[in-house]
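anyone seen this seq b4? input:
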Amino acid sequence: MSSLYIDIRDDQWPLVYDEKYNVSFCGFEKFHVFDAKKWRNIIQYLIEADFISPECLVKPLEAKESELLVVHTKKYLKSLKWSGKVAMIAEVPIVACLPNILVQRAYLKPMRLQTGGSVLAGKLALERGWAINVGGGFHHCSAGRGGGFCAYADITLLIKNLVIHRNVQNAMIVDLDAHQGNGYQRDFLGVPEVYIMDMYNRHIYPKDEEAKRAIRRKIELGNKVEDLEYMLKLRKNLKAALKEFKPDILVYNAGTDILDSDPLGHMRISEVGIIKRDEFVFEICKEREIPVVMLTSGGYLKKTARIIADSIMNLKNKGLIGCELKNKIENKPERF
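predicted toks r here
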């Protein structure tokens, strides 16, 4: 049993969050376009809307070294003890000048907590039919390399823990962040039991050609894509992917950097478009009785937090998430 797997009360929703998710570099985080308090703001909006109470939230455990070594190399984890390395991953050069003990506490510890949240959300999705980690989605990090603000490979860890501890045989990753998810793609190269669908802006970071070989359904978009084209391609390709492959769980990387005016995504999806996107993914999973775990991933504007909160409330209003328990996936003897 993974030490990150905890049981929750029946009255709790599988919404995973801890106040310690939020990043603070003594103000230096302002040198990055990322809203380092995005996760707190999502929860604040949900509480202000009387959608949840703090007691309903599920607090995860931090992924410690023994848990991280399920995926990561010792060499990579050791490299994070050098502030210069972390500065490159976080894309905040001034972090290289900070003592590593501060970097660990201010940035890496919150990232390890979010990573533990993703692993826990995978387990909860099997039990409840859905789960949302209000964080995570570090899709640029692989076993031996971080980058793009992603220090730990939470998506790979989520899936590998389900394989080891819940006998999951087949998993699908649907990555709708504006950027290619090259981290887990490198980890799952040559693993047919993990089906990857990635829809991203081909003109922006990371342009990782080696990692692209792992993508089974690749939808490369251009700059300035708008709602109609985006939703048509999403609907067509996700339906086709689920005809080709029958997953035991779907990992949904729900980056909001596709939003119009996002400084890094360079796409033109509206706020309503993001809400409709999330609704479609949850709707198709519910129709097919596929457990779905959502990670919030990228999104670099202050208004992103409210959009994510609105989307979560919309999922509840449409009957796509709720308290009802679902049967766990049957234990299966084969593993990959």
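DSSP finds eleven helices and seven strands in the chain. The two ends are 17 Å apart (CA to CA). kinda curious what u guys think
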